[in-house]
């Protein structure tokens, strides 16, 4: 007792009939642990740390009558090992971690009179485990006969039984069992599902198992833009199925999905899509599965076209803009991943800020159709991320149901890969030509106002010789500008006509008859 033994001693006398090693540190029963003690009848190894039992650990023990392994850490037992112990009458395995009882488990225990499997982790057992037990088979053959049969005590309580269709046969066995098989505790209780937790076996009626059957009240939905949408599917199955939603072959996040039982075999699953937008349109699939198989149902969602989803970069209004509904937009933050916009509505639009919705249109500058994002009341910032390098983007903000006006858009250009320094310098130079002003931002991203036009890009390839600015640079005055604040790598000459290398620098790519816009600094963007 309480010895620091880590293995079965090798010098046990051969005529030993009873061995008791408890509260020690045994961790396994290896092969041939007792091969020299063939007279052994009682083996008690309670309250050790045994996790592994070799299939031949009981070899050469034909006389063994009692094996007690209570309070160990066995998660499985090699039941065929009991072929070597035909005389075994008592098997105590309570307070272990057994979670499976295979159908052949009791086949090699023909003379058992006491089996204790209580306080383990058993959840589901087939009744065939006991139908193949020789003790039960003898009792069935002897029914109605005078022949006396020894009783067999069976302990199965304090296990987390899952009372669904898989346990149906076992529950029927427990209800019908009688002498010579005696249950130590006949009040076996259900642990799950929730609606059966705590109920006794004799109180429940379990149905046969059923493969999931999925359905939906409406498989075609059309909703207006900005409306919260709930897609619903119903599943009939036994046992309870796992249910999930997919869209475009992607698993949808669980926090938008709720699943609940509305009856014993029916589950309702709901998917919430907040503020539906055109990008949310498509086929949503509800899938349910249990051990018998899986089925699914598809629901098609159509979202009404947004008011400006096809408006070209010119932003021709399709609804008259209210004079006081102007939205002021600024770049609040720039990171290596994108920019964060901040806006506020002036005058009438700001009169009821708690009820004002906004629409953001985000996309490449030259895209005919931009993504529409609908922002609810009380929110006045949005981060634009996942951008492509060396690409020109435009983001516009407007009060809901109005077209964006001048000053409500931000145009910005993402830089090239920072590892390609030469390309990055060229990109900066192009931006200087294109933009009336440049806002320097980290990691190769640059922003300019909506008034910028990309005309130079088409007309001046190769017409921008690299040269240092001369004294003429003082013509810009003492006013601080973005051009003056650029790093040395971008101090190249601006575009000018062919042959115009010397003397006074002409305006950058001006078209005939068009006046040059006044010089503006980076603060104008704010």
TrEMBL record:
Is Transmembrane helix among the key words of this record?
Answer: yes
| PROSITE patterns named among the record's database cross-references | FN3 (PS50853), IG_LIKE (PS50835), LRR (PS51450)
Sequence segments annotated as region (Disordered): 469-526
Ig-like domain: which residues?
212-304
Top-level taxonomic group: Eukaryota
Q: Which residues form the Fibronectin type-III domain?
A: 325-421
- One Pfam family from the UniProt entry? Ig_3
Keywords of the record: Disulfide bond, Immunoglobulin domain, Leucine-rich repeat, Membrane, Repeat, Signal, Transmembrane, Transmembrane helix
- Classification via CDD domains: Ig (cd00096)
UniProt-listed InterPro entries: Cys-rich_flank_reg_C, FN3_dom, FN3_sf, Ig-like_dom, Ig-like_dom_sf, Ig-like_fold, Ig_sub, Ig_sub2
Stored Gene3D superfamilies: Immunoglobulins, Ribonuclease Inhibitor
Basic and acidic residues bias spans? 493-514
Residues annotated as transmembrane? 427-449
Keyword Disulfide bond in record: yes
User: Which PANTHER family does its entry note?
Assistant: LEUCINE-RICH REPEAT, IMMUNOGLOBULIN-LIKE DOMAIN AND TRANSMEMBRANE DOMAIN-CONTAINING PROTEIN 2 (PTHR45842:SF14), SYNAPTIC ADHESION-LIKE MOLECULE SALM (PTHR45842)
Protein name (Swiss-Prot/TrEMBL) = LRIT2 protein
What's the gene?
Lrit2
């Amino acid at each position: 007792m309480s010895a620091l033994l880590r293995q079965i001693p090798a010098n046990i006398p051969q005529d030993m009939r009873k061995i008791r090693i408890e509260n020690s540190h045994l961790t396994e029963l290896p092969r041939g642990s007792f091969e020299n003690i063939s007279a052994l009848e009682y083996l008690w190894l309670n309250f050790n740390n045994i996790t592994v039992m070799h299939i031949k650990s009981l070899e050469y023990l034909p006389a063994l009558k009692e094996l007690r392994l209570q309070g160990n850490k066995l998660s499985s037992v090699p039941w065929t090992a009991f072929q070597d112990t035909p005389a075994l009458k008592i098997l105590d395995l309570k307070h272990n971690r057994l979670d499976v009882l295979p159908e052949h488990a009791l086949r090699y225990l023909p003379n058992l009179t006491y089996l204790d499997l209580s306080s383990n982790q058993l959840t589901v057992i087939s009744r065939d485990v006991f139908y193949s037990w020789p003790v039960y088979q003898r009792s069935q053959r002897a029914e109605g006969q005078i022949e006396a049969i020894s009783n067999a005590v069976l302990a199965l309580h304090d296990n987390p039984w899952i009372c669904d269709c898989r346990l149906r046969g076992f529950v029927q066995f427990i209800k019908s069992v009688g002498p010579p098989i005696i249950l130590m505790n006949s009040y076996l209780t259900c642990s799950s599902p929730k609606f059966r937790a705590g109920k006794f076996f004799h109180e429940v009626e379990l149905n046969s198992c059923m493969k999931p059957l999925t359905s939906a009240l409406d498989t075609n939905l059309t909703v207006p833009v900005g409306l919260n949408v709930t897609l619903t599917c119903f599943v009939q199955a036994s046992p309870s199925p796992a249910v999930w939603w997919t869209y475009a072959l992607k698993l949808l996040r669980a926090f938008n999905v709720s699943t609940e039982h509305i009856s014993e075999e029916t589950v309702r699953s709901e998917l919430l899509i907040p503020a539906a937008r055109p990008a949310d349109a498509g086929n949503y699939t509800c899938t349910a599965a249990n051990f018998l198989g899986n089925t699914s149902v598809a629901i098609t969602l159509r979202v009404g076209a947004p008011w400006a989803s096809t408006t070209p970069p010119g932003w021709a209004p399709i609804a008259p803009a209210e004079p006081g509904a102007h939205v002021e937009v600024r770049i609040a933050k720039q990171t290596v991943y994108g920019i964060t916009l901040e806006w506020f509505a002036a005058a009438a639009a700001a009169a009821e800020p708690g009820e004002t919705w906004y629409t953001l249109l985000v996309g490449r500058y030259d895209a005919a159709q931009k993504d529409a994002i609908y922002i609810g009341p009380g929110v006045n910032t949005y981060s634009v991320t996942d951008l492509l390098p060396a690409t020109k983007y435009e983001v516009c903000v407007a009060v809901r149901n109005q077209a964006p006006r001048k000053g409500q858009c931000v145009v910005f250009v993402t830089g090239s890969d920072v590892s390609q320094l030469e390309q990055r310098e060229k990109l900066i130079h192009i931006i200087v030509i294109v933009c009336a002003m440049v806002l320097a931002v980290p990691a190769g991203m640059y922003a300019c106002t909506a008034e910028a036009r990309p005309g130079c890009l088409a007309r001046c390839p190769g017409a921008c010789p690299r040269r240092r600015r001369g004294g003429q640079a003082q013509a810009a005055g003492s006013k601080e500008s973005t051009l003056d604040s650029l790093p040395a790598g971008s101090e190249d000459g601006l575009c000018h006509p062919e042959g115009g290398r010397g003397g006074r620098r002409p305006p950058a790519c001006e078209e005939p008859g068009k006046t040059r816009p006044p010089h503006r600094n980076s603060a104008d963007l704010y």
